[in-house]
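Good morning,

Both structures are done.
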Amino acid sequence: MCNAEQVNRHERVNLLEKKFLEQIRIRQLVSKDDHVLLAVSGGSDSMALLHLFCAIRKAVPCRISAVHCNFRLRAAESDLDERFVQESCHVLGVPCYTVGFDTLRIAGEWKTSIEETARILRYEYFDSLLCEQAMQVVATGHHVNDNAETMLFNLFRGTSLLGLKGIRAKRGKIIRPLLLVHKAEILGYIEEKHIAFRNDSTNFGIDPDRNFIRNRIIPLIEERFSHKLLPSLQRLSEQAGELEEFLELYFENLLADKPGLSAADGMLEVKELGRLSLFEQKEIFKRALREHDVTCDSKTLDRLARLLKTQPGRMVRISAHLVVLWKGGMLHFQREGYSPLQS
């Protein structure tokens, strides 16, 4: 390779590292002296994340450690992934934490899908490490393509408008510094830097639904519409995220001005609800149900909105453990065991 080609190659690699560093600084994802936990599966995305953090450590003087979760879903392959991550981190001088889960058994006990079970187990372990090791944030390797998959997945499940926000660059203690990076850029970086990675054989089929979206739907739409899908979904994601931020501030101010719309004490004032638009009513109901650790769908919100058009004494059952009763001038959120016949 001639010197000019070597220089160009070095510049291309530096461009991604610069982009990565810019995103961390602009979005304020990592602060000086933070201890960052990197979620490393061994795949191309997480290995790129690991190497990118190693590359910028002088520019952002933070401590990094890695964590690998072995869900034991692919027999020997899962154990080889774990060993690969441990050895890679050892070479880079990065401390590595590992944990194993009997995911199939736990999914059966919880009656949840394998994907959902793995997600819960993963983030619970992350939380425990953050607490035990005094770490500040967890970084994951989610990128533009992952965000598109999530948005389409949510859309097909019947999400709300705000559900189209997809993945956020920062949510609580989870950060995603690669969220504006395309998969092709990651693979280019991997190739340029000669970074080894592991392929998960379960990612190449069409089951579960996310694989079908990734391997069939997105490539087909991208081919037809000249690679316009991912940029369009990214813009929609950003706009939905901006709308969510606006609404959170709006309803924070509204609840501060109208105490009767706060369900902290288990009640909402019917008269105040009646002054709101349908959209506002549903958003208030969402927040009220959140106080009771209950998630809801559009049908539940429609039923609660219709309750306001009835009369005192009417009730909507939200779940086996919660009902909403119109009593006097208030909507009462009552836990399981309440009877309307009680005084």
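Second structure follows.
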Amino acid sequence: MKFISTRNSGNIVSFEKAVLNCIPEDGGLYVPEDFEDKRRWILYTDENTTFSSIAGALTSAFLKDEFSPIICETMATKAFSFEPKFKKLGERFFSLELFNTPTGSHKDFGIFFLVNCLETILTLKNQTAVFLDATIGELGASLARAIRGKKRLKGVLLYPKGMVRGLSETDYVWNGGNILPIEVDGTEKDCHNIVRKIFSSKSLVEDFRLTVANTANIGRLIPQSFFYPFAFSRLKKQTSGDIFYALAPGNYSNLVAGLYSWKVYLPLSGFIIPVTDEIKLDFHGNCQIMDSIVSLTEREKVDPASPSNLERLEDIFRTDSLMLKNFVFPSDVSESSAVSACQELFSKYGVYADKNTSAAYAALREKKELIDEDEASVVLVMRDHPALSHDFIKHCLGESPDVPDFVSSAMKPVELGKKFVTSADEVVSLMKGLSV
């Protein structure tokens, strides 16, 4: 599989280049150039097929032109000592939990996969690389766990002051670890601005061999497409009708990954999401992407610090605008309807749902007629552990779930005892001390 930029179809690169030099110079995002049909393959999966097996098989199918099947399967299977949980909640209603991970966040799937791919590539090339990301906790905790013990990767993480979480003493580079945490005397926005400024310098990117662990990197997004065949392998014997996935769009990475799944191997009828600022309903009640009104040539470059995958979503539908109306079904969801949805999930199914999951369920309720029309089955995608949404659930239910140790550890505040920085120059100065 080759990859092209959303803003220049002539910019064709390998997977290796797409993950190492993750931001195209034209300011777009890398996307798959084409998709090989693997629908026959999915027929051989069932409820006994592990997530790591699915990941290994699909990685080999995607990257067979660059790496041997053994290397591909090793990259994938080593990444996943954990897997999603698929549950039946009611008649034709299921959940896919993505939070049974080292930190309780769905981000672990993408980050652990990306780290293992990069470590393998860098070992083959005898090179090193550095992640540079801004975070308020979840990404940093996940990256720290993923690169522990890796020889060729370091992570530079920028936090707003007082927001360092989920790290241990052994993670720090000054103690022999792989993480250089830096507190910025400012807000999350200030951290993002520093990352943008550093990435705007081609020489700095090349000198430090910088990449990102967020979904601007296609290597972070690709493994999210493995969620859906895993769910289908559990679902296919339980339904013969249409299949919809209800999810909160976030930065649209799971939605894009789900559509990639459909293109390659997955039978599905569509995605139900809450309306967002960028994805709305038109006058006819159909899905409309607001950014599409603005030409790609008139847009700012993709943000390496806080990316949106909306441009990747547009790319999928660019050749067939009618497809957008038939695969993405937005619903208006108010704050009160999200609260009501949280209460209903708990009272009917015993499910603690965070705000995002509650909003997805509220959107699903608005599409009841669509679901009932063909007796369709629905999978509710639950991204993060409900304990991470303690205040919202407490507000809705008057109680909240217990916080498991792995979530508590990932969110535990940390004091670095280091000087705060205020500029990109100070960050670069600290990065020069990295042994990469």
